[in-house]
Amino acid sequence: MGAPAIDRLKKRADFLAAARAHSCARGAVSAQARHRGDGSDLVRIGFTATRRIGGAVVRNRAKRRLREAARIVAPLHVLAGCDYVFIARGGTPTRPWGPLLDDMRSALTRLAAELLAAGEPPAHAPKDQTSSRS
């Protein structure tokens, strides 16, 4: 209940904006993050894979694996009001599942530290949930 709402990132402009912000590569995962600054606690996540990692079948498999890893790891490690982009790297389609989850967790932790150090995002949990305790 303390995790922010998560949606998909779909517009090219949003992917490009994330590319200009903070980035981190860990193992088979490269991640980018930016705080939107629109006052919303919604988290948006996008996935991409370049042709360099393989043909369409390999790219689709890599993105499916990233989506599932994000479904498991992201609710615990994302910051409210941020956009994240996960980019498949060469080892994404074949990396064992446990290390892939560790790569994503490590990348999200590093990005959160960078965003917090830059003073960009609001608190981790949505405001209405943190203020309900008296």
What would your notes on this structure say?
With 134 residues, the chain is of the alpha/beta class. The chain has one domain: Ribosomal Protein S5, domain 2 (2-Layer Sandwich), CATH 3.30.230.10. It has 4 helices and 5 strands, in the order βαβββαβαα. It has a 5-stranded mixed beta sheet, with helices on both faces. The longest helix is centred in the middle third of the chain and has 22 residues, at 56-77. The radius of gyration is 15 Å and the shape is globular.
Low-confidence stretches: 125-134
Q: CATH topology, which one?
A: Ribosomal Protein S5, domain 2
Looking at the structure, what is the overall shape?
globular
Largest sheet: 5 strands, mixed
Tell me the Rg in angstroms: 15 Å
In short:
This protein is an alpha/beta fold and 134 residues long. Helix content is 41%, strand content 22%.
